[in-house]
Amino acid sequence: MPEFVDTDRCMMSGSGVRISRAIPMLLAVFAAAGCSSLVSNVTEGLATDLSAAILENPDVDVVREGAPAYLILIDGLLESTPDNVTLLSAAATLNSAYAGAFVTDEDRSRLMSAKAKALASRAVCLGVRDGCGVVGRPYAEFERWVAGLERKDVPLVYGLATSWAGWIQANSDDFNAIAELGRVKALIGRVADLDEGYDYGGPHLYLGVFEVLLPPALGGRPEVGRFHFERAIALSEGRHLLTKVMFADQYARMVFDRPLHDSLLEEVLAAEDDLPDLRLMNAVARRRAQVLLDSADDYF
Predict the structure, then answer these.
(1) Which residues does residue 19 pair with via DSSP β-bridges, in sequence order?
(2) pTM, whole model, 2 decimals?
(3) Which of 80, 145, 211, 251 has minimal CB crowding within 10 Å?
């Protein structure tokens, strides 16, 4: 499930890294192996249905106001089924999404993103082979684990990577947190290898953003980033509008390419035919596209 994004709230660390809120929202629905109780089936179905209802609602303000009730509900469901991978994944992605999109208080954002990361880590521990404690492993061990991931692991691993990225954003004034970006990039890169079309090309969207976090003088690779943005657009057949918005915001503005910037955003505003599960995300993208176009004269 695509994640809400507030690209107005990008931050600069002391090292010059731009930690962008380009975190596509995912509600990975992964049924716990061997789970057959009626209560568990009902709660998983409820989580799935509510997630779909949020995703298909184009009214951003309604979702902003209503999502906290869902967060409380899913916490309650986890009290009775704490090892349900589906619920853990849903809780992780919603907490990360809400913190990144709607929470302006820094302390609260850090708390919610830490909760999301912990929930996603728990889901990976339960649902992925040898997945317990991977976040804190020595890097060489972490690399070996990433290399052994399989296609079936993609939903949970992608959920962990996005929640982890959200946690880094919320702690972007902490050099220790920023240092973990390399692990997130490795994880997203493996997801792209296994299933590049997942989440409408979401892995490539992330990889595109990662390549433009730094200016070229500090190691950024904007043209590699451009490749990933364009690949993500191709994989979604241009229907995931946030990809074009992030391409304009993160790449075109970085290299001062106004024709590309404006054409991408105009395409977003002209698009009308939304897939049901992209209605909310595309509504967010259209709002952001208009903000970027309105400010273009001042930027370029």
Answers:
(1) 11
(2) 0.81
(3) 80
Q: Does residue 138 sit in helix, strand or coil?
A: coil
User: Which residue type sits at 132?
Assistant: C
Structure tokens at 81: 């089924």
* 168-192 core/surface letters (b: 16 or more CB in 10 A; e: else): bbbbbeeeebbebbebbbbbbbbbb
Rounded distance, CA 101 to CA 50, Å? 19
Q: How far apart are CA 23 and CA 164, in angstroms?
A: 10
Instruction: Name the nearest CA neighbour of 118 among 135, 131, 106, 101.
Output: 135
Q: What is the pLDDT of residues 116-163, one digit of tens each?
A: 999 999 999 999 999 999 999 999 999 999 999 999 999 999 999 999
Instruction: Give the C-alpha distances (Å, rounded to integers) separating 186 from 28, 210, 285, 296.
Output: 20, 11, 27, 34
The percentage of the chain sitting over the pLDDT mark of 90, rounded to a whole number, equals 53
Mind giving me the DSSP string for 224-277? HHHHHHHHHHHHTTT--HHHHHHIIIIIITTTT-HHHHHHHHHHHHH-----GG
CA dist., res. 3 & res. 55, Å (int):
9
Contact 117, 163 (CB under 8 A): yes
CA-based nearest residue to 7, from 220, 254, 200, 232: 254
State how far the alpha carbon of 131 is from the alpha carbons of 28, 184, 200, in Å: 17, 15, 25
Instruction: Give every CB contact of residue 42 below 8 A, 6+ residues apart in sequence.
Output: none
